[in-house]
C-alpha cells in the first residue's frame, strides 16, 4: 500500500513538472502545437526510503525533459560513492 501511494505521489509530481516544462497542462489543445509535447512514458525504478518503487516517467517529443524530482529522489536515498585518495609519503 505504501509503495502504491509513493508511486502516485511521484508520478503526480512528475506530471506537474512536465506541465511546467512544457508551459501547458495535459489535454490543453490551445498549446498542443507549441513545438514540444508529451510523448508517452518510460518505466524507471525510483529508490526510495521504503525500497524500490516502479514509476512511469513522462517523456517529451524533443527529449528535453529532465525530471528533477526523480533524480533528487534517487540521490537522496542512495549513498553517494566516496573516493579516498591516499597519497603515500
UniProtKB/TrEMBL annotation:
Query: Does the keyword section mention DNA-binding?
Result: yes
Q: For this protein, what is any one GO molecular function term?
A: transposase activity
* Purpose of the protein: Required for the transposition of the insertion element.
Extract the ranges annotated as region (Disordered). Answer: 20-48, 65-89
Q: Where is the composition biased (Low complexity)?
A: 73-89
According to its UniProt entry, one GO biological process term is: DNA transposition
- List the InterPro entries hit by this protein, alphabetically: Transposase_mutator
Keywords, in A-Z order: DNA recombination, DNA-binding, Transposable element, Transposition
What protein name is recorded for this chain? Answer: Mutator family transposase
Q: Which PANTHER family match?
A: MUTATOR FAMILY TRANSPOSASE, TRANSPOSASE FOR INSERTION SEQUENCE ELEMENT IS1081
Q: Which family does it belong to?
A: Belongs to the transposase mutator family.
Compositionally biased intervals (Basic and acidic residues): 20-35
Amino acid at each position: 500500500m505504501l509503495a502504491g501511494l509513493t508511486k502516485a505521489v511521484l508520478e503526480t509530481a512528475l506530471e506537474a513538472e512536465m506541465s511546467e516544462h512544457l508551459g501547458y497542462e495535459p489535454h490543453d489543445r490551445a498549446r498542443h502545437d507549441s513545438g514540444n509535447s508529451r510523448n508517452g512514458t518510460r518505466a524507471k525504478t525510483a529508490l526510495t526510503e521504503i525500497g524500490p518503487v516502479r514509476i512511469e516517467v513522462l517523456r517529451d517529443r524533443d527529449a528535453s525533459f529532465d525530471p528533477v524530482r526523480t533524480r533528487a529522489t534517487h540521490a537522496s536515498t542512495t549513498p553517494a560513492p566516496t573516493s579516498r585518495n591516499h597519497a603515500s609519503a
